[in-house]
Design brief:
By secondary structure, this protein is α/β, with parallel strands linked by helices. It contains seven helices and ten strands. The protein has one domain (2-13, 20-259): Rossmann fold. Helix 6 (190-208) crosses helix 7.
Length: 260
């Protein structure tokens, strides 16, 4: 296990030459925290604009950058100076639940083509504030230009009952468990968490040929986080799909990270 302070380095997100990284964040258990922390990490290292947006409605995290309309964002460096980090939405004001409106795949591709933009970070999945989910067939809502998929799981998911009160999309979770012979399972263990993530999000990432990684958030639940990380390592080995696994926990306003 290695320690570092740069989230994008942990996740093996490097420069793609002429292609701007479009990083879709999916799953449950800390997407907003990771989204805004990743933006801050990349903005500190790169001398260009980092854009945060969503293909689903999303809320702001911290630190909170300015919110720009898509039209204004397309003029970065022309009529306005390039900022470090901005949130881009089709509604500059949040809705009644404090959420901002999504962009479509075409808009995200256009933003990624701007010379001043170093990366576009996308909240591409909904989870209703649950620590774990499996996607429905039409989820996640990935931009066509996605180069990286970061999958989130909360360490506090370990041991939860597989019910609508505790996890998101329990029926989809059970479908995966049925496929691997765990149909009688009523609570999430580390193996079921790992298998669900890799057999859904991991397969999707492989299908669209984007890079895949997993962040186990809320690693202050240390035993649970390490159990999930170990299970992910085993699943990675037996499925022959290698991917970065990062443990994270929030202390005050900062993330403490470790690469498993």
């Amino acid at each position: 296990m290695k320690l570092n302070n740069s989230l994008h380095n942990f996740l093996d997100i490097d420069s793609l030459g002429d292609q701007t990284p479009v990083i879709s964040i999916v799953g449950a258990g800390g997407k907003t925290t990771i989204l805004f922390s990743l933006a801050a990490s990349m903005a500190a290292d790169l001398s260009a604009t980092i854009i945060i947006c969503g293909t689903t409605r999303f809320t702001l995290g911290t630190p909170t950058p300015a919110v720009w309309s898509f039209t204004d964002a397309m003029n970065i460096g022309i009529t306005v100076p390039p900022p470090g980090t901005i949130v881009v939405s089709n509604s500059v004001d949040p809705g009644d639940k404090g959420r901002f409106s999504p962009l479509d795949s075409r808009q995200i591709s256009q933003l990624a083509q701007l010379r001043q933009v170093a990366a576009v970070l996308v909240n591409a999945d909904g989870s209703r504030m649950r620590p774990f989910k499996a996607p429905k067939l039409e989820e996640p809502i990935l931009p066509d230009s996605t180069t990286h998929m970061i999958c989130l799981v909360g360490a506090d998911a370990l041991g939860l009952p597989i019910t609508a009160e505790t996890v998101h999309r329990p029926d989809e979770i059970r479908l995966v468990l049925d496929l691997i012979g765990l149909s009688g399972l009523t609570e999430l263990d580390s193996t079921s968490i790992s298998e669900v993530l890799v057999r859904t999000y991991g397969v999707i990432a492989e299908r669209i040929s984007c890079e895949f990684s997993v962040v186990v958030h809320k690693a202050d639940y240390q035993d649970a986080a390490e159990a999930i990380a170990n299970a992910l390592t085993e699943t990675s080995f037996f499925s022959r799909r290698e991917f970065p696994i990062v443990l994270s926990k929030k202390i005050d306003t900062h993330l403490v990270l470790s690469r498993w």
